[in-house]
Specification:
The complex is a heterodimer of chains A (400) and B (306).
Chain A lengths: L1 H15 L2 H27 L6 E5 L21 E4 L2 H10 L4 E5 L3 H4 L2 E5 L6 H15 L5 H9 L4 E4 L4 E4 L4 H33 L3 H4 L5 H34 L4 H4 L5 H28 L3 H15 L1 H4 L1 H6 L4 H8 L1 H14 L4 H29 L9 H9 L1
Parallel strand pairs in A: 1-2, 1-3
Antiparallel strand pairs in A: 3-4, 5-6
Helix pairs in contact in A: 1-9, 2-9, 7-9, 7-11, 7-12, 7-16, 11-12, 11-16, 11-17, 15-16, 16-17, 17-18
Chain B lengths: L1 E12 L2 E12 L3 E5 L6 H8 L7 E6 L6 H4 L2 E4 L11 H11 L4 H14 L15 H13 L5 E5 L7 H16 L3 E5 L3 H7 L2 E6 L2 E7 H8 L3 E7 L8 E7 L2 E6 L5 H10 L4 E7 L4 H11 L10
Parallel strand pairs in B: 3-7, 3-8, 5-6, 6-7
Antiparallel strand pairs in B: 1-2, 1-4, 8-9, 10-12, 10-13, 11-12
């Protein structure tokens, strides 16, 4: 057990100190940083938060309600003008950046005119004028009704098939699970790729013969698996931290992000799928690594397999259109594709519980079987230098 | 006390019988030579001793009983296929390998500088292994074999690729290890090193034991199977001679088993144009014995087996 941890520690240290790993790990936070920076720059420089005016020919506006609008410190002053001429004069004097005209028939037609000097209006000014109109329109109702009318409905969707429920508040809550699934999947692919490299490198460096006189093949493989899992979890933690910080910083400027709810149920399912999926992919990579002579050969074979792992992405249109299509259900159960398919389906809608349970069971069972295969092939292939492990030798190894 | 007991070991790969009924013992404080031509089964035997391969038949006892995980930590192994992590720095690589052998990291850090300095690698400790010369990597591999102070040292072709100075240094280290009571099993083709270092040998050919015993005994058994000549004339193509070579002005003739040196002497005397100045029985070198036994592909003389 001690040696397993030594192997794991060494593999972890070697992996996280590699340039490629550091670049891959820091690239996502860097991308989020750039994205948040862009949001801030656009927010600060691209908007005129100067006053706006309005002409209320419909008689629905109550200027005093400005005091009740949210975020008083970021409020854009809104001035009322008696007629269009007065508002136009104010616009030309630069008192306001734009003004709205609510026509006489506004309550029925919602017809509104906007007058500006440069053809555009800052998003915040527009939103706040809109808030003032809404507040004015509902002013006659009791306070609790006003609030309900302004907030709209909180819809909770109950999926009878899966027994699951989820909130439909904001596009971010739909995108986030997909992003999370993609992160986990990419992390799995990266980690199993590292595993291929780790095994092929041991063989290429001729270090296996020395190592297996110190540790058992199982300790060696398990140690590498744990070490690389640690590395990839570190990577995921950095991604998650960057995402949380990015959302926290950007949410004041992007209203959709304020509605983000952490999808704990989804994350729980992804984590549940992640471990057997990682074990399966890693075992496949060990098998490839132990069978080839050089890392490049292994990477070529793994590249083709990766296409299979990513097959659910190729049928994404079908998955979006009809997630109960037999092909999608099949891919949800097939161990190689179940991780990504189930994650996407869960993130985009719902999956019957039996499919999740069966998919996970098949994934876990195939992972265990593949670990057994990998251990046999590894033992047979580790000392075959300069030539690939023949199919005959591999078959003999599997038969024991 | 026997540190290694190999008994009737056999291993087959497909149609090839790689090792067939090989037996030998190695004692404490002994340097033992495991000899044989390429493909004789030496490496397979070593791998079975180390539980890398499972034997089809026979048993291996290491340090008194079957090999287990704690005992592996008391073995230092330098395989013929050398290997260190090329993209890693030398010092952490050696410390990692020592800790895998059960050595505390602090102890490994304490002992390593002495070895690095002795083998002239101290200045290179922070370099990546791939930046070291082949000879340096060979020495680094030896440190990896010895750093954890094993009781049993198994080295496969330890002198390959080393210059004479480093060869002498490694010989010296092996002598020290022997005096410290360590058991060294050495597989090599370099017979002069075997003669200089080994107490006993086993010679394997085509998977079978063909010679086994103390070096002195083996040489004595083969005395009379080689003669040394000085003189003029044609010494080639003599009947019953396996190999003829000239060294320092003398001719060394390795004879087939059973050939009487006196018969050779008579044949030479009868040959026209031959003028003999010296004819003497030669105690054969291990090199000669190796060539003779392997070329004949026959069993050793009576009593040479264990």
């Amino acid at each position: 057990m001690h040696n397993l941890w030594l192997v794991a520690k060494n593999e972890y240290r070697r992996t996280v100190l590699r340039k490629a790993f550091l670049i891959a790990t820091l690239s996502i936070p860097a991308a989020i940083l750039v994205l948040v920076g862009l949001v801030l720059v656009i927010e600060r420089s691209g908007q005129d938060n100067g006053p706006v005016g309005y002409v209320d020919d419909a008689g629905v506006m109550d200027e005093s309600l400005q005091a009740t609008l949210p975020d008083p410190e970021e409020r854009v002053p809104i001035y009322a003008y008696p007629d269009k001429e007065a508002a136009l004069a104010a616009l030309q004097r630069g008192e306001v950046q734009a003004f709205f005209v609510l026509s006489e028939g506004y309550p029925a037609s919602l017809a509104t005119e906007l007058y500006t000097l440069e053809g555009s209006l800052g998003g915040r000014a527009w939103e706040q004028f809109d808030d003032l109109v809404r507040a004015s329109l509902v002013a006659g109702y009791p306070e609790e009704v006003q609030q309900r009318l302004l907030d709209g409905s909180e819809v909770t969707v109950y999926d009878v098939g899966s027994g699951r429920q989820f909130s439909e508040s904001g596009i971010a809550n739909i995108i986030l699970p997909i992003v999370a699934a993609a992160f986990f999947f990419i992390a799995t692919m990266i980690a199993s790729g590292y595993m291929l490299e780790a095994v092929a490198r041991e063989k290429e460096n001729r270090t296996l013969e020395v190592l297996v006189t110190s540790v058992t093949p199982v300790q060696l493989i398990a140690g590498k698996t744990v070490g690389l899992l640690g590395a990839v979890l570190t990577q995921l933690a950095v991604y998650a931290a960057a995402l949380v910080v990015g959302i926290a910083v950007a949410s004041p400027f992007v209203p959709e992000l304020q509605q983000v709810v952490v999808p704990w149920g989804f994350l729980g399912m992804v984590v549940l799928l992640f471990f057997p999926a990682y074990l399966l992919f890693a075992a496949i990579m060990v098998t490839i690594g132990a069978s080839v002579t050089e890392m490049e050969q292994g990477q070529q074979v793994a590249g083709m397999l990766n296409l299979l792992f990513m097959a659910p992405l190729f049928v994404l249109p079908l998955l979006l259109e009809n997630s109960t299509h037999p092909l999608i259900v099949g891919m949800s159960l097939f161990p190689i594709t179940s991780f990504l398919t189930l994650s996407l389906r869960w993130g985009l809608g719902s999956v019957p519980v039996w499919q999740v349970a069966l998919g996970w069971g098949l994934l876990a069972a195939s992972a265990v079987a593949m670990v057994w295969v990998a251990a046999r092939i590894f033992r047979a292939g580790m000392l075959v230098y300069g030539q690939p492990l023949s199919a005959k030798a591999a078959w003999a190894a599997l038969r024991g | 006390m026997s540190i290694v007991e190999v008994s009737h070991l056999a291993k087959r790969f497909g149609q090839t019988q790689a090792v067939d009924d090989v037996s030998f013992e190695v004692g404490q404080g002994e340097i033992f030579g495991l000899l044989g031509p390429n493909g004789a089964g030496k490496t397979t035997t070593i791998r079975m001793m180390l539980d890398i391969f499972r034997p089809d038949a026979g048993t291996v006892r290491i340090l008194g009983s079957a090999l287990d995980e704690p005992k592996k930590q008391r073995i230092g192994y330098m395989p013929e296929e050398r290997g260190l992590y090329k993209d890693q720095k030398l010092e952490p690589t050696l410390i990692y390998l020592a800790t895998l052998k059960g050595m505390a990291e602090a102890a490994a850090r304490e002992r390593l500088p002495g070895w690095l300095k002795r083998l002239d690698l101290w200045e290179h400790r922070s370099k990546k292994v791939q930046a070291l010369s082949k000879g340096m990597q060979q020495k680094a591999q030896l440190i990896a074999t010895l750093l954890h102070e094993p009781d049993l040292i198994i080295v496969d072709e330890p002198f390959a690729g080393l210059d004479p100075v480093n060869t002498r240094l490694i010989e010296q280290i092996f002598e020290e290890q022997r005096h410290a009571g360590k058991c060294i099993l050495m597989s090599t083709h370099q017979m002069h090193q075997v003669e200089a270092l080994c107490d006993r040998i086993v010679l394997i050919n085509a998977g079978r034991t063909v010679l086994y015993g103390p070096v002195g005994d083996v040489k004595r058994r083969f005395a009379g199977n080689a003669v040394v000549l000085e003189g003029q004339g044609d010494f080639a193509g003599l009947p019953g001679v396996l190999e003829t070579r000239k060294e320092n002005g003398s001719w060394h003739l390795a004879l087939e088993r059973g050939v009487d040196p006196q018969a050779l002497f008579r044949a030479l005397a009868a040959r026209e144009g031959v003028k003999l100045e010296r004819f003497a029985l030669e105690e054969p070198s291990l090199d000669d014995i190796f060539v003779q036994v392997v070329q004949e592909g026959a069993a050793a003389p009576e009593g040479s087996h264990a």
